[in-house]
Write a structure and sequence with these properties.
By secondary structure, the protein is an alpha/beta fold. The protein is 42% helix and 16% strand. The chain is built from 17 helices and 12 strands. It has helices at residues 23-33, 56-65, 80-94, 117-142, 161-165, 168-187, 207-213, 223-233, 247-254, 281-293, 303-309, 316-326, 330-336, 380-387, 393-398, 408-411, 414-421, and strands at residues 14-18, 38-43, 69-74, 99-102, 148-152, 193-199, 244-246, 338-345, 350-356, 362-365, 374-379, 402-406. The chain has a 7-stranded parallel β-sheet with strand order 3-2-1-4-5-6-7, with helices on both faces. Strands 10-9-8-11-12 form a 5-stranded mixed β-sheet. Helix 4 (117-142) packs parallel to helix 6 (168-187). The longest helix is centred in the N-terminal third of the chain and has 26 residues, at 117-142. The chain is elongated.
């Protein structure tokens, strides 16, 4: 599904796309193929993955079925020799490279303590180093092209501390890709190479999002990104460089005003999961509160506060926990196997917990008796909205209304529990 018509502008052009066997990389490859472009499918997946669809060979077949030419290459962007071999093969088959898409990326939305160094190295070696290395090795070929582009799938450089605080390792790795845009766009001007970044405004229905959230109903299809990429890659690289674009904004400027067809579920077209690194207006105040109170550590010294608030047991949150307590079942404990701590700010400030791991389960005010698997921090208003079904936990997290420390996967299990409580709260 594409709202941007192919113009043939990329006919005969050669695109080198990392991570092109599935997701956004594949969508960009197929869009270019409709123009009759040549595509180097540079990705690791040569053998079918047990859980994820697509290999470099199945993608190559789809490219050729649409009228393009394909060169599947086994490429791990951490390996210089593999990239160089793919570049050399591209020269042999297509006589050069016109466009490099740095799409390959690794993700782990974990805090500092929860990020093991193997995962840290993987993100930095694929995202930042891989982008730099692919750009470096393609540069001699791009210099010879009269329509040379580098496009990185990376976010605008947003220095709001919030985006560092929730997953600093991943943020640094993605911002490394964006810093390549910042530096190389200026450095490569003399060679007439356009270097730009593209980032989706909302979650995109890829294997990564499905793995993280288990749900793509509040996501958009990869085609919104490939359409935006196509618009960008058709521009004159001599004049168009150093831009950090958002897919929806690119398409609006192109003349597309209705984004509903891109939604995985049209019913959720106005209730989509926002992507990270973008300061949604509704989340700005939360960000400011997070930054200004980050050093207070009031949650570790709030025993006195409980005594002061013992008489203040009226309010939405005590009522919510009364309902939650009545609906904790052995089956729910068996399914969830997690302990949650809630650090609530604002009008009904305090600490609450839900233990769905030990014994028959429990909930109430104060820290849990057993170590929390996930600690969630949010304003009391958002807390109430979340448990009444007005605000999804995944949406709240991506919008910056919810801060999570600990096991993100277990934190997102709350979503299922909230659905069962929705009609009872």
């Amino acid at each position: 599904m594409s709202l941007v018509a192919n113009t043939g502008k990329l006919a005969g052009r050669t695109l080198f796309i990392t991570g092109a066997s599935r997701g956004i990389g594949k969508a960009i490859a197929l869009k270019a193929a409709k123009d009759g472009a040549n595509v180097v499918v540079a990705a690791k997946t040569a053998e079918p993955h047990p859980k994820l669809p697509g290999t470099i060979y199945t993608t190559a077949e789809e490219i050729e079925a649409l009228g393009g030419k394909a060169l599947p290459c086994i490429v791990d962007v951490r390996e210089e020799k593999q990239i160089q071999k793919a570049v050399d093969e591209a020269v042999k088959k297509f006589n050069g490279i016109d466009i490099l898409i740095n799409n390959a990326s690794a993700i782990s939305l974990t805090g500092t303590a929860q990020t093991d160094m193997k995962r840290y190295d993987l993100m930095h070696n694929i995202n930042t180093r891989g982008t730099f290395l692919a750009s470096k090795l393609c540069l001699p070929l791009l210099k010879n092209s009269d329509h040379a582009h580098i496009l990185n799938l990376s976010p605008p450089l947003n220095m709001n501390p919030y985006w560092f605080s929730i997953h600093v390792a991943y943020t640094m790795a993605k911002y490394g890709m964006s810093m390549c845009v910042l530096g190389m766009s200026e450095e490569f001007k003399q060679y007439n190479i356009g270097v730009n970044a593209l980032w989706p405004k909302t979650a995109i229905a890829t294997a990564a999002i499905e793995m993280l959230t288990g749900d793509t109903s509040t996501s958009r299809k990869p085609e919104i990104v490939s359409d935006a990429a196509y618009v960008m890659l058709c521009k004159d690289p001599k004049k168009y460089t150093g831009n950090f674009e958002i897919d929806e904004e690119v398409l609006k400027q192109f003349g597309i005003s209705d984004m509903t067809p891109y939604a995985c579920d049209p019913k959720n077209a106005d209730n989509l999961l926002l992507d990270g690194f973008l300061d949604d207006p509704a989340a700005i105040n939360h960000h400011r509160q997070t930054v200004s109170t980050a050093s207070v550590r009031r949650y570790h010294t709030s025993t006195v506060n409980y005594k002061e608030k013992e008489s203040e047991q009226s309010g939405e949150i005590p009522e919510l926990f009364t309902v939650i307590g009545k609906n904790i079942t052995p089956e729910l404990v068996k399914k969830t196997q997690a302990v949650f701590q809630f650090n609530v700010k604002g009008k009904e400030e305090g600490i609450w917990h839900i233990d769905l791991k030990n014994g028959e389960g429990s909930c109430g005010q104060g820290e849990p008796k057993h170590p929390a698997d996930a600690t969630l921090t949010m304003d009391s208003t958002n807390f109430a909205d979340m448990f009444s079904g007005k605000l999804k936990a995944t949406n709240a997290f991506m919008m910056g209304k919810l801060k999570i420390k600990g096991d993100l996967q277990k934190a997102m299990k709350l979503e299922k529990m909230m659905k069962s409580l929705k009609n009872k709260v």
